[in-house]
Amino acid sequence: MIILITGSAGPTGQAVSQYFEKNGHTVIGVDKDDVDLLDRDAVQALADAIERDHGRVDGVVHLVGGWRGGKTFADTKLEDWDTLHDLLVRTLQHVSLAFEPLLRKSENGRFVIVSAKAAEKPSAGGAAYAAAKAASEAWTLSLADALKDTPSAATILVVKALVNDEMRAARPEAKFAGFTDVDDLATAVGGLFELPASEVNGARRDLTA
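The chain above was modelled as a monomer; its predicted structure follows.
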């Protein structure tokens, strides 16, 4: 399979990349130093290049993230919303619009984002973050509707937060209760390709249970 991973340089991107590489798939990883995902033309150029080289894409795992917030609702800064809108929504819009046609050419394509429990139960200080996550979920569900008559699917994976070995080493006393390990997330992403598209398209799969 041909798998595109955006936000590939971070711990989560590395874990997902390693999962697919280990299983013999072609991984195309991009980060902000490779492609400016806020530049619609640059993202389209990436899609065009992948189509020339491979003819299709079988998986798009969109891992661009970020967090901003305060202790109270009154602390909320609208500048944080602007930042989170770019990171969580605008990059998703550009990537999904550019790669939806390529996913249609796949016999088993998957588009995946990682959302947060905060989208369904926002905290007072997390208004901007929760709203951006909710917007990204709505956008992905619209993509799922567009793909419903194809062999491809768009799915939302939900976590409380993610944890990796570096975080554990830095805070050995922390429990990270309810957090999802990045390797477990990678396995969950891979498992989506083993299920029928109809079962995962438009699904919001909770990894915190």
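DSSP finds seven helices and eight strands in the chain.
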